[in-house]
Amino acid sequence: MGRISGHGRLIRCGRTSIVVGVDIFNEIDKLDKKPMSVGQSLITYSRLASEGRGLRIKSGGDRHRAMRFSLGKTPLKQLLVEKVGIQIINQARGQLGIGMTAYVRNSLNSLQGGIIALLADLAGQLTLSKMTGKTWQTRDLSIHYMTPGIKGPFETTAKLMRSDKHNALIRIDVLDRGDNNRLMAVIFNTCVHTRL
Question: What class does CATH assign to 81-196?
């Protein structure tokens, strides 16, 4: 068991968008073992104009900083889902909710994109579990961010698109309930049935 690392590379930098590829590795703590690839992502960023949406960028002195989720060898004291405050509203409908807090707010004062991805990941798995009585695991997320989530609370809805004995595709919409139910993101979650 080693640490998880992400290695990013710039693919495209344009006037209105930036595309970055990220390879995720498990860096095994053995001298004769190479890091093992555990995932890849392709991320497109839009250059946002802050006018009219209440977005304010916070700047810090250190632009390149390692993120630590624990102190030394001390493990996390709380599950991530509990720490960010995700609540199950209606599992059968894929309704999960979360409020806006400093912990989930990004430098634009909107909901972090990673938290939106986490909501879609959990909503897909939990909905399928309720529908089938089986355990499912997310294999792939295709995320389309539409607009920043500013107010909250934020909520997901789920719609099953197709499924068979081993695979399922489920659409997750993320809404900003405090902003006239504005559609923030559309995510397609591909899940696989796992035997536990």
Answer: alpha beta
